[in-house]
Specification:
- With 543 residues, this protein is an alpha/beta fold.
- The protein folds into three domains: 161 residues, Rossmann fold (3-Layer(aba) Sandwich); 194 residues, 3-Layer(aba) Sandwich (Rossmann fold), CATH 3.40.50.12780; 110 residues, GMP Synthetase, Chain A, domain 3 (2-Layer Sandwich), CATH 3.30.300.30.
- The strands form five sheets. A nine-stranded mixed sheet has the order 2-1-11-10-12-13-14-15-16.
- The chain is globular.
Length: 543
């Protein structure tokens, strides 16, 4: 196996200034007049944004939010989102990102489990939050972004203190002088990687800062680059792969509100982007757009992402003239694998970077031979460059860190030159449109319907890569349940990206092992033939 090490340009040791707040301050001192953030026509320089973060930090502190307190965010992409994250970090608070599609029990769970004291929420999502507040005694403050109308009226419905985010703009922006360590907890990111409840991966400041610096090196980003992403900030993808690398080198970031295949390249041209980050499904969808004489009319030279099959990558590059660099990352451990510009294997997720030791192990934690499939396991070679553990889940933390290695649950093989090739997930998770979904949480929502005895959610192949969701239901004895009725229940009880596409409903018991576990592999093997397909029904109804 050939020897290979990633390029190094910064000190990778833990330094006192490796906090989000200090990193922003240093960048503002160095590149104060340079554009930093843009979104929907709004733009701020490094210096302007740093001053705004001080004002927001003072506003949060004025509400009593302090070191170690959790501040949840439920926001669309925008400058307020980034300001909240950095402001919370500047006073030692912990940001908890919430998917804006969350509603019902999963929303209560994340807010409650994280012990959030404050929620910064766009007014569009207030009606999802208010019905759950009685279950959240620790939540004391609702901070509204957008035109809140009469905050007093919302407060009367919410039963907690309501503050308009815009009020923070009028505050004194002098630094508060709060001591924050690079080892302090900065973020709790909830991830649905297994059949159990979503787990909150605890990220320290140093891990977040170092991931950005490393990816800036890997992708050869400099201060003249413009990095574009339409992916949501409530996922680490947009933060670690776009925002933090730009901050490390003085580049500019442009956020879209959401991915649109028809509008993607118009956005890229408008903001003069030079790099973008992606999910494999995005590349597949863009390839399906009608060819245009403007396909190469842009400044893009590189895209960084994961999950695009080899043939799709080659087609995209040939058509649009953009090099795609694939890597591998996860909430628990950052970005341990990546190809490099000029040193890649199409179809692979690259070699170990960022001073991570990555090994493929069998079920007994023995190394597998070159070319054999094993579980991806990771051990950092530098301190505080992975998660600290799962919040309030010590048993799950120990299981993931067993034998002093992070066990990802993902399967891969490795070639003789050290390139890794992703094979599959060993955990019972579903990957849909870039979202990891816990099958247990879908099942819990479906089982709330009074006609359902039990259910099983399983992944099935999608036409645009990744998975679609199929739900298999056994009804209560003597009860009838139609697919359309269950679909409406799902739409009201879960985020839209959880809602199954395929439904199988019947009185037959689900197949089980001798130890009474549902044999989901049999349900997956049966496929979708004969299942009720809500997309096909919708298409038929529109004719």
């Amino acid at each position: 196996m050939s020897e290979w090490r990633p390029p190094v340009a910064w000190s990778d040791l833990v330094e006192p200034e490796h906090t989000l707040g200090d990193t922003l301050r240093q960048s503002a001192e160095r590149w104060g007049e340079r554009p930093f953030l843009g979104c929907q026509g709004r733009e701020m320089t490094y210096g302007e944004f740093d001053g705004w973060v001080d004002r927001v930090a003072r506003g949060l502190a004025g509400l009593g939010v302090g070191h170690g307190d959790a501040v949840a965010t439920m926001l669309d992409n925008g400058l307020e989102y980034v300001a909240t994250w950095f402001a919370a970090s500047r006073i030692g608070a912990v940001e908890v990102a919430i998917n804006t599609a969350f509603k019902g029990e999963i929303l209560s769970y994340v807010l409650g489990h994280s012990e959030a004291r404050a929620l910064v929420c766009h007014v569009e999502y207030v009606d999802q939050v208010i019905p759950r507040l009685e279950e959240l005694p620790r939540l004391e403050h609702l901070i509204l972004v957008g035109d809140a109308g009469d905050p007093a009226e919302i407060a009367s419905r919410a039963g907690i203190r309501v503050t308009a985010f815009a009020e923070f703009d009028r505050l004194d922006g002098d630094p508060l002088g709060i001591e924050v360590s690079p080892l302090d907890l900065c973020q709790i990111a909830y991830t649905s990687g297994t059949t159990g409840r979503s787990k909150g991966a605890m990220g320290p400041h140093n891990r977040i800062v170092q991931t950005g610096r490393s990816l800036a090196r890997v992708r050869r980003i400099d201060s003249e680059d413009v990095l574009y992403t339409p992916l949501p900030l409530f996922h680490n993808n947009a933060r670690y792969i776009t925002l933090m690398p730009a901050l490390a080198v003085g580049a500019k970031v442009e956020f879209g509100l959401r991915f649109s295949a028809s509008g993607f390249f118009d956005e890229v041209r408008r903001c003069e982007a030079t790099q973008f980050n992606y999910l494999g499904v995005m590349i597949a969808i863009l390839n399906k757009q009608e060819p245009s004489e403007r396909d190469r009319d842009h400044r893009l030279n590189l895209g960084w992402g994961a999950g695009a099959p080899k043939d799709i990558v080659e087609t995209f590059e040939g058509r649009f003239g953009v090099s795609l660099i694939e890597g591998y990352g996860l909430t628990e451990a950052g970005i341990p694998l990546s190809n490099l510009p000029g040193d890649r294997r199409i179809g692979s997720c690259g070699r170990a970077i960022n001073s991570y030791d990555v090994q493929l192990l069998d079920e007994h934690d023995n190394p597998v031979e070159v070319g054999e499939v094993g579980e991806i396991t990771i051990r950092p070679e530098l301190p505080y460059t992975t998660m600290l553990g799962y919040f309030k889940m010590p048993e799950e933390t120990l299981q993931t860190f067993r034998n002093l290695r992070i066990h990802t649950g993902d399967l891969a093989r490795q070639d003789e030159d050290g390139f890794f090739y992703f094979v599959d997930r060993s955990k019972d998770a579903i990957r849909r449109r870039g979202e990891n979904i816990s099958s247990q949480e879908i099942e819990a929502a479906v089982n709330e319907h009074p006609a359902v005895l039990e259910s099983a959610a399983v992944p099935v192949p999608s036409e645009v890569t990744e998975d679609d969701v199929m739900i298999v239901v056994t009804t209560q004895p003597g009860r009838e349940l139609g697919e359309a009725e269950l679909l409406e229940h799902c739409r009201g009880a879960m985020p839209s990206f959880w809602v199954p596409r395929y439904f199988r409903i019947g009185a037959e018991a689900l197949p089980r092992t001798p130890t009474n576990k549902i044999e989901k592999h049999k349900l997956k093997a049966a496929g979708t033939d004969g299942a009720w397909d809500r997309e096909a029904v919708a298409a038929e109804g529109s004719r």
